[in-house]
Amino acid sequence: MSAPLAGIRIIEVGVMLAGPYATMMLADLGAEVIKVEPPGGEISRQVSDSYFASLNRGKRSICIDLGSDEGKAKLGELVADSHALLVNMKPSVIRRLGLTYDNLRRFNDKIVCVAMTGFGLNGGDDPAFDYVIQAATGVAAMTGDPDGPPTLPGYSSADNSTGLTAALGLLAMIVSGKGGQVDVSLRDVMLSQLNYRASAYLNDGAEPRRHPFGAHSYYVPAQLFPTADGYLALFITHDGFWKSFAGEAGIEGFGTMAERAAGRDEVLDVVTAALATDTAAGWESRLKPLGIPAAAVRTLPQALDATPEMLVTAGDFRLVGSPVHVAGHTPEYRPAPVFDEYTVSDSPVSTAGS
């Protein structure tokens, strides 16, 4: 079959991670992504070649000075023949460069314009990097050991999540057949992802508490546990899982979810003692055949070695492939673009704006 997004052209004015990740996901599904870069190139080219490749494979690059009249005219030519434009910059910069639907609709009234910002197009220009957003939305405060400092995850969760959300909004508007403005902010995305935590506070007044080993606020036992060698993630969400686990671990009692929640400390003590009798890898091999959610804590190299089917090659770089697996479609993992290798006349005119 042809790629799911074959025939869709997207202009990206992206910086660093969130915007480029969004459009790379769409490029993996067959969209033509034209990456607009300023003179000198997008700043992430200065980080490392592998960093740039991990967020920009499969795209084309064109250098446009969007601050010049000539650049604005060239962008207009691209917009006239495209389905969407996605940008992640400060709101004032987005407006100054004319990267909004109100400004671009004169070239194509069906263009979808997606603005990715820290706090919304009308939310001001305060700096909004990933770690700042995690701090501002309560994520850092609820992460880590209860007796330790707030903690950040080891990857850019806000940027990546916002990229995926922006891609969803972009596609929704294309499917609608209407042009318009889509406004996606890092703050709003992270607040949305706090769903049940926010609901517990808004409806029950329950403020999030940190538990040792990242324990879940509702389910017991559902957290990391030390073992004879390494740590094990165990996630017991219902009584059936508990019955199977308790039988394998030699634990009696606490047969209902309510009992386990009420006796959290005692349950964790007996589970910790039981898990100390074997290694994390040993417990994983014992529990998985029983259908119990459990996994030994792995390093990134170990995780990549265990999933060779997710590793792809794009040009000179080995990368993690697309997580979206469409029956009958194998993504074409092309290299990240050479700076300014694309011209407006490279592709035939489509019916994007008709």
How do the strands and helices of this protein lay out in sequence?
Blueprint: E1 9-13, H1 18-28, E2 32-37, H2 49-56, E3 60-63, H3 69-80, E4 84-88, H4 91-96, H5 101-104, E5 112-117, H6 130-136, H7 157-176, E6 180-185, H8 186-192, H9 195-204, E7 222-226, E8 231-235, H10 239-249, H11 257-262, H12 264-275, H13 280-287, E9 294-296, H14 300-305, E10 311-314, E11 317-320
Helix pairs in contact: 1-7, 7-8
What's this model, at a glance?
The chain has 354 residues and is of the alpha/beta class.
Major sheet description? 6 strands, parallel
Order of helices and strands: EHEHEHEHHEHHEHHEEHHHHEHEE
CATH topology value of the largest domain: Rossmann fold
Strand content: 5-15%
Write down how many β-strands occur, each being a DSSP E stretch of 2 or more residues.
11
**Derived structural class:** alpha/beta
Average residue pLDDT: 95
Structural domain count? 2
By CATH's scheme, which homologous superfamily of the largest domain applies? Crotonobetainyl-coa:carnitine coa-transferase, domain 1
> What's the N-to-C terminus distance?
25 Å
Total count of helical runs of at least 4 residues: 14
Identify the overall geometry. elongated
Integer-rounded radius of gyration: 24 Å
The level 1 CATH classification of the largest domain is: Alpha Beta
Residues in helices, as a percent range? 25-40%
Strand numbers in spatial order across the main sheet: 3-2-1-4-5-6
Q: What is the name of the CATH architecture of the largest domain?
A: 3-Layer(aba) Sandwich
Stretches with pLDDT under 50, minimum 5 residues: none
